[in-house]
Design brief:
The complex is a heterodimer of chains A (268) and B (65). Chain A has three helices and eight strands. Chain A has 268 residues and is an alpha+beta fold. Chain A has an eight-stranded mixed β-barrel. Chain A starts with a helix and ends in a 16-residue tail after the last strand. The chains are: A alpha+beta (268), B mainly alpha (65).
Chain lengths: 268, 65
């Protein structure tokens, strides 16, 4: 029997005979208690850190997947498509040229578009785009940088999304290639952007990347561009990666989705 | 600390074990529901936007590539 237990036992026996006894703690006992306390504190800190990692890498994905699905549903309900899931995949006749002006920027936190990127289809197929780029917005899809162009607008339609955690929509961002299509659907119009170039070595202060004419502040925008930003390295936040593209087509939703894609079926 | 908690949980050991488990679940729940969501934006992870605000000439880089 170790000395601590002996002391406790002695105290317990004496309690039976003579009433409560103060337990005489030896010096060794106190030293052991302090060391045990320090050890437990370390174990606790370790467990907390592991839990935080689990929260970041797993739980935020669970929550965000749910939030993204809800946001998408909200947008689709607001659009009130006759055929939810978005209209005939096989267009009939010659599509009418789009004459609608781009949407006005909605209030912060309002979803207004769905994005489909065949190259990133496992994450970005009907990804909601919501106004603003706060963390609360990015927790349920892509965020639209305020004061940048809206889909189809002259200037730069700039969006951001997570590459890790929060359902990691841009997890496979590096897989994108020049010429890849990015389909952006608003209530009435499908916009097709074709990617032109990227820069994986940006810093968080490179705000020029979302400018109306990226890299040329003050010059009059003529093209209709898209910019997508995310973090790099993955799981880090020291750098930024951006892809740029240019509008290559638009058609009314009533004429069917572009290039024969089917928004209801995630391509494999 | 853990010894102290164990000593102060009531009942025989199966009940103690059950209560300890309930305590653990409660702690994890509080962490995931309130503590971590509060902490997360304060940590330098998962930032995906270029800083917004007034674009100043100093940070505008020439357009390469």
């Amino acid at each position: 029997m170790n000395p601590d237990d002996q002391e406790e036992l002695r105290a317990a026996l004496l309690t039976d005979i003579e009433g409560p006894q103060p337990v005489e703690r030896s010096r060794g006992y106190r030293v052991r208690a302090v060391i045990r306390g320090i050890g437990e504190a370390f174990i606790t800190v370790g467990a907390l850190l592991l839990l935080m990692v689990a929260y970041q890498l797993w739980w935020t994905n669970v929550e965000a997947s749910q939030a993204i699905a809800e946001e998408r549903q909200e947008i689709e309900q607001a659009w009130a498509d006759p055929d939810p899931g978005a209209v005939t995949p096989t267009p009939t006749g010659t599509p009418k040229p789009v004459t609608d002006k781009p949407l006005a920027e909605p209030l912060y936190g309002t979803g207004f578009a769905l994005v489909y990127i065949p190259r990133l289809a496992d994450h970005v197929w009907g990804l909601p785009v919501t106004q603003g780029t706060g963390k609360d917005v990015l927790a349920h899809g892509a965020g639209h940088y305020a004061d940048t162009a809206m889909p189809g607008g002259v200037g730069n339609f700039a969006i951001a999304a997570h590459r890790s955690s929060h359902s990691e929509p841009f997890a496979n961002f590096p897989d994108l290639q020049v010429g890849d299509k990015v389909y952006v659907r608003t209530q009435k119009v499908w916009y097709t952007y074709t990617l032109t170039h990227d820069d994986p070595n940006l810093t968080p202060t490179d705000t020029w990347v979302i400018g109306p004419v990226p890299g040329f502040p003050g010059s009059e925008p003529k093209k209709k561009l898209i910019t997508m930003t995310t973090c790099t390295p993955r799981y880090g936040s020291t750098g930024r990666w951006a892809w740029w593209g240019e509008l290559s087509g638009s058609r009314y939703v009533s004429d069917g989705p572009p290039d024969g894609i089917d928004p209801r079926v995630v391509p494999s | 600390m853990y010894g102290w908690i164990w000593k102060h949980l009531p009942g025989p050991w199966p009940l103690k074990a059950l209560l300890a488990l309930a305590l653990l679940v409660a702690v994890v729940l509080v962490l995931f529901q309130w503590v971590f969501p509060w902490l997360e934006p304060r940590l330098p992870f998962n930032q995906v936007t270029v800083d917004e605000g007034t674009p100043t000439a100093g940070i505008v880089l020439p357009f390469v590539r």
